[in-house]
Amino acid sequence: MVAEGNLDMAAPSPLPLDGSVVKMKGLPFKASSEDVLKFYGSFGVKSHNIYLKRHPDGRPSGEAFVVFESPDEAQRACQKDRETFGEKFGDRYVRVYPT
Q: Which end of the chain has fewer CB within 10 Å, C or N?
């Protein structure tokens, strides 16, 4: 099982500010870090660099932050904006934004 990062918006941000992070929106609520790894299959993302956001009550928010090896890699990842997230989620697409 892949551990999922939990992003607490009240805590100081653990995310780098060098352009190597993308924000994902529109994730299925049942999506896991493993699903995000599959979505970015050729990018070499590590599971500990995936932060699935949750509401204060613990429910998934449908958003995530993903840290890439470099700003160039993050920029390339943004080209996956509006791609279908995965077969098990049907035709659902996700948005990918630079941070």
A: N
> What does pTM read for this prediction?
0.83
The strand pairing partners of 97, in sequence order, are 23
pLDDT tens for 44-74 read 899 999 999 999 999 999 999 999 999 999 9
Q: Which of 20, 24, 33, 42 is nearest to 83 (CA)?
A: 24
For residue 75, give every residue at least 6 positions away whose Cβ sits within 8 Å of its Cβ, in sequence order, or none: 19, 98
**What DSSP string describes the chain?**
----EEE-TTSPP-S-SSS-EEEEES--TT--HHHHHHHTGGGT--GGGEEEEE-TTS-EEEEEEEE-SSHHHHHHHGGGTT-B--GGGTT-B-EEEE-
